[in-house]
Amino acid sequence: MTVQVLAVLAVLSALAPLSMDIYTPSLPLIQKELGASEWLAQASITACLLGIGIGQLIWGPLSDRLGRRPVIIAGVIGWALASVLSALSTTPEMLVAVRGIAGLCGAAGIVVSRSIVRDLSPDTRSVASRIGILSLTTAFAPILAPVVGLVIAHAWGWRADFVALAALGGGISLVFAFVVPETLSPERRTGAGRGGVLGALAAAARDRELACVAIAIGAHAFGFYAYIATASFIVERQFGYPPVAFALVFATNAAAMLCANVVFRRIVRHRHPAFALGIGLAVSIVAGALLVATSSARGPEWLLWTASTLFAGAAGIVLPGAHSWGQTTRVASGAASALTGSAQFLGGVLGSPLTGMIGPTAANLGVIVLLSSSIGLCAWLVARRRVERPRIDPVDERGGTASADGTPRDDRHL
């Protein structure tokens, strides 16, 4: 795989998350112009998250049947058109609806990019390292998006944010068409008589190893998106700090995720992604326990900051660890990517509004992080036992074992 191909896949992985938050700095202006109330912010973000989660369940299995290129091109063009409609929105209901469509279409770039990585990688270590880069861009896009959106909106207005997204979609679709070849040959595609998309997803869900990995990342994402939705309220309302303090907290979180991603890529050079995922979930539990203990004892606020940084760093290991592990299972690549990807974003849909309902405090957030990460670790323990069982797959000529779609597996270094 060339650097150019990996760079294109990284951009494709960032499209849907980028569109989720690029317009958030302009929400007060959008609410005023469209005559919306406070519900617009949460509804538009939730619609996009829900679209990303559901979309991956559709595009992933389709790419196993139709090939990678037509699915990504169709999805990105749909995403660009949805961005144009967002710029033309005249009512809050229209904006929420087209943001959901944007998430649905943009999901193609996330889910199929991981499958292309698997198609072009010779072993588990290569898959994990490259997916680590894609996961990093997916996680960083929502962090960088508000800054970019603020600059664009300040110069040309909030509708220009969506025009910029549409231009990005059109440009990257053209680059993809010229740079990335079809990576799934016709003989490796799933047949049309296997129950369609639902049949492929059902078969993927019956793989207990993959199902447990999906539960692990979904549980962790529940806590992670609850943290993203709550952090600003804790910093600014509970403790009374100015917005610049929250920006500093988020900056350290972003740095922690970046460093953790580097650590992940080093780990998977010698160990199976399952090992890295277990480390990330364990650190998440420690972070949640530290949040609860510090809040209950009214400890120093720098400990809360430390706990949040630990949790963000753990996410930089958990997300690529789970997606990489999913790509090493016997399940067809697109369906496997769909299951882990949708679990991540649907977990976010459920987790992001929870703290708002029970109270956005550090103690409540700590309990959510502790419980969700513990559930994830339990699922990891079950899946880990299945990884450690001897494989009976035919050996591929490159030293790994062949998966269901012909992609080589490398089950050494567990």
Automatic annotation (TrEMBL):
<feature type="transmembrane region" description="Helical">
    <location>
        <begin position="331"/>
        <end position="350"/>
    </location>
</feature>
<feature type="transmembrane region" description="Helical">
    <location>
        <begin position="94"/>
        <end position="112"/>
    </location>
</feature>
<feature type="transmembrane region" description="Helical">
    <location>
        <begin position="275"/>
        <end position="296"/>
    </location>
</feature>
<feature type="transmembrane region" description="Helical">
    <location>
        <begin position="241"/>
        <end position="263"/>
    </location>
</feature>
<keyword id="KW-1133">Transmembrane helix</keyword>
<feature type="transmembrane region" description="Helical">
    <location>
        <begin position="71"/>
        <end position="88"/>
    </location>
</feature>
<comment type="similarity">
    <text>Belongs to the major facilitator superfamily. Bcr/CmlA family.</text>
</comment>
<feature type="transmembrane region" description="Helical">
    <location>
        <begin position="39"/>
        <end position="59"/>
    </location>
</feature>
<feature type="transmembrane region" description="Helical">
    <location>
        <begin position="162"/>
        <end position="180"/>
    </location>
</feature>
<feature type="transmembrane region" description="Helical">
    <location>
        <begin position="210"/>
        <end position="235"/>
    </location>
</feature>
<keyword id="KW-0472">Membrane</keyword>
<protein>
    <submittedName>
        <fullName>Multidrug effflux MFS transporter</fullName>
    </submittedName>
</protein>
<dbReference type="InterPro" id="IPR004812">
    <property type="entry name" value="Efflux_drug-R_Bcr/CmlA"/>
</dbReference>
<feature type="transmembrane region" description="Helical">
    <location>
        <begin position="362"/>
        <end position="383"/>
    </location>
</feature>
<dbReference type="InterPro" id="IPR001958">
    <property type="entry name" value="Tet-R_TetA/multi-R_MdtG-like"/>
</dbReference>
<feature type="region of interest" description="Disordered">
    <location>
        <begin position="393"/>
        <end position="414"/>
    </location>
</feature>
<dbReference type="InterPro" id="IPR036259">
    <property type="entry name" value="MFS_trans_sf"/>
</dbReference>
<dbReference type="InterPro" id="IPR011701">
    <property type="entry name" value="MFS"/>
</dbReference>
<dbReference type="Pfam" id="PF07690">
    <property type="entry name" value="MFS_1"/>
</dbReference>
<feature type="domain" description="Major facilitator superfamily (MFS) profile">
    <location>
        <begin position="5"/>
        <end position="391"/>
    </location>
</feature>
<keyword id="KW-1003">Cell membrane</keyword>
<feature type="transmembrane region" description="Helical">
    <location>
        <begin position="302"/>
        <end position="319"/>
    </location>
</feature>
<keyword id="KW-0812">Transmembrane</keyword>
<feature type="transmembrane region" description="Helical">
    <location>
        <begin position="133"/>
        <end position="156"/>
    </location>
</feature>
<dbReference type="InterPro" id="IPR020846">
    <property type="entry name" value="MFS_dom"/>
</dbReference>
<keyword id="KW-0813">Transport</keyword>
